[in-house]
Design a protein that fits this description.
SDR_fam, globular, 259 residues, Oxidoreductase, short chain dehydrogenase, seven-stranded parallel beta sheet, single chain, alpha/beta, Sc_DH/Rdtase_CS
């Protein structure tokens, strides 16, 4: 089990799904955690349950990111880990909506999934450079298998998650070239029981069962399974691993679609 004792982490989108599982895992592994979410009720309850701190955050508000990072540093003295997990779907293919609705959906999903992730990376690096003992940290950005095999039914989500993959590599190489011991990696989850999927099931009954069949394992991932991969990347167990992608998809991307 990765040892996160004494490390300080920020986890966005902590109210449910992978974010909630990451908070639980990090606290269990010894980290001090600040969880953030727009859902104050569920986010605060999760953090109270686990002993983490909580802050309301809209990750697309780039001006607020330095304040979020400062809160973690003020509370715990440093920042070692950032998990950029918060995300949303647009629910629209390229020709599904009229222009006004399409571009509104596109702008919002990219603001959250991509600009929010970039702003988080930027604020975290600034704090990690000033850590006691020297620059050190780990950033894990959560993408999706749609970054590799995009959804025709959601152009904004697919495009934003594809961009997160490349963003992570750019961040990783910038830090490496500047001789900063700050790693940046991407986790690519497959079909996982998250709040987004639960909400979609209410609109489209049977969706969860259909999505489960996209994996040869014929099931969804438990968020805790993805959190385990995140914890490994956040730990000191893989110091040479940066700019990499860890796929946690139950082999969904490994099989020909006809089988």
């Amino acid at each position: 089990m990765p040892d996160l004792s004494g490390k300080v982490a920020i986890v966005t989108g902590c109210a449910s799904g992978i974010g909630a599982a990451a908070v639980r895992r990090f606290v269990a592994d010894g980290a001090k955690v600040l969880g953030t979410d727009m859902d104050e009720t569920r986010g605060a309850a999760l953090c109270a349950e686990t002993g983490a701190l909580f802050a309301v955050q809209d990750v697309s508000d780039r001006a607020a990111w330095p304040q979020i990072v400062a809160r973690a540093v003020e509370a715990f003295g440093r920042l070692d880990i950032l998990i950029n997990n918060a995300g949303m779907v647009s629910g629209a293919g390229i020709g599904d909506l009229d222009d006004d609705a399409m571009f509104a959906a596109w702008d919002r999903v990219l603001a959250v999934n991509l600009t929010g992730t970039m702003a988080g990376c930027r604020a975290a690096i600034a704090a990690m450079r000033d850590n006691p003992g020297g620059a050190k940290g780990a950033i894990i950005n959560i993408a999706s298998t749609t970054a590799i095999a995009p959804l025709p039914t959601d152009v904004g989500y697919s495009a934003s998650k594809g961009a997160v993959r490349v963003l992570s590599k750019s961040v990783a190489t910038w830090c490496a070239q500047h001789q900063l011991d700050i790693r940046c990696n991407t986790v690519i989850p497959g079909a996982t029981m998250t709040g987004i999927l639960e909400a979609a099931e209410q609109q489209t009954p049977g969706l969860i069962a259909a999505v489960a069949k996209t994996s040869p394992l014929n099931r969804l991932a438990d968020p805790a399974e993805t959190a385990a991969a995140i914890a490994f990347l956040a730990s000191d167990e893989c110091p040479f691993m940066t700019g990499a992608e860890m796929v946690v998809d139950g082999a969904a991307l490994s099989i020909h679609p006809g089988f």
